[in-house]
Amino acid sequence: MRAVNAELKDIDKVQIHPTGLVHPDEPDNKVKFLAAEALRGVGGIMLDCDGRRFVNELGRRDYVSETMCKHDRAPYRLVLNGKASKEIEWHCKHYCGRKLMKQLQSGEALAKEMQIQPQQLEQTFKEFNMSMETKRDPYGREYFQNGPWTMDDIFHVAIITPVRHYCMGGLHVNTECQVLSKQGPIPGLYCSGEIMGGTHGANRLGGSSLLDCVVFGRIAGLSSCRYLMEVFVSRAAGGALLGAGASATDGTVHQGTVDVPQDSTNAEVSTQTGEKDTSHSEVKRHVFTLSDVAKHNREDDCWVVVNGEVLNVSSFLNEHPGGKQAILLFAGRDATEEFNMLHKPDVVSKYCPECIVGVLDNVSSSKASLAKMHL
């Protein structure tokens, strides 16, 4: 961007999110998973190292993050009681699967986890219950649900810390999403999403980042198409004869076609003639047991089971959008339940069909299903 003298806007506006999840085995890792705000929305509370509340958990991100820093009583924990955990069960299972959250069977167990006296935790619960009953909270919380809180309950708990979450600043653009320099719009350069500055002001509202991408991505797409059409028309008018198949760069004449790899051409012909591509179904698949899969449990030799298919994902780990650790947690194991919580069934065949090395035998598949039923 410096090479074309692009201007920046609001580059000093960076949003801090209060609930980055701390992995117990990697507390100093600079990259952290984010705890969904829904965890607080269903009734989760935030506790300091002494087991006390210190903030309105439903406040703005900047307020909660700033209060955590000023209060200076880390480690902080996000805690959900049994009712809240049930309401947002999917998230709890997901975070527990990533070892970012723990399920504890009682208030005493929670106090032990936090290394505090059970009496202190019980007092915190009593004070919070009073706030729920009177609608008068010392930290200004106005909305309560999934109470009351008692020591004889099941809890989900995670260590949390403020994290850098979103940069409101970025490239300065006009209403057509065209990147600007001091001299004006830069021809042919458009952007949208978080790289674009000035959309959200000093503090972005939660839940708006994907909407930002959709709205301004559409504008940027339409604007860039309009620009390209103007360029093509201009070149055609100048004698490039694009309509007749001439190249705008080297003058080579084509017959209105695009070179396509032979495999792709065959696949297209098969589709057009109605013939079913049986190239994958004709390949004999190897059958593995869970014991076979369990032997491949290292980063350089990582197999997992997904919906009855055995995958060798060793070469895919660094390409996984969710990071390799999300897969390595299930190295040598059946990852079906976690996978299906996050993905559509066709993701494997669509993005990494080469990873499929075989199928799970029926006996192992049945045992895996029974084991999940008893969890």
From TrEMBL:
Record's keyword annotation contains Metal-binding: yes
SUPFAM superfamilies with a match to the protein in the record: Cytochrome b5-like heme/steroid binding domain (SSF55856), FAD/NAD(P)-binding domain (SSF51905), Succinate dehydrogenase/fumarate reductase flavoprotein, catalytic domain (SSF56425)
Span of domain Cytochrome b5 heme-binding: 285-361
Disordered: annotated span: 253-280
Gene Ontology MF, one: oxidoreductase activity
Stored SMART domains: Cyt-b5
Biased composition annotated in UniProt, kind: Polar residues: 262-273
Keywords from the named record: Flavoprotein, Heme, Iron, Metal-binding, Oxidoreductase
Signal peptide: none
InterPro entries given in the database record: Cyt_B5-like_heme/steroid-bd, Cyt_B5-like_heme/steroid_sf, Cyt_B5_heme-BS, FAD-dep_OxRdtase_2_FAD-bd, FAD-oxidoreductase_2, FAD/NAD-bd_sf, Succ_DH/fumarate_Rdtase_cat_sf
Domain of life: Eukaryota
PANTHER family listed in its UniProt record: FUMARATE REDUCTASE
Similarity annotation: Belongs to the cytochrome b5 family.
Record protein name field: Putative fumarate reductase
The species this protein was found in: Lygus hesperus
Name of the gene this protein is made from: SPAC17A2.05_6
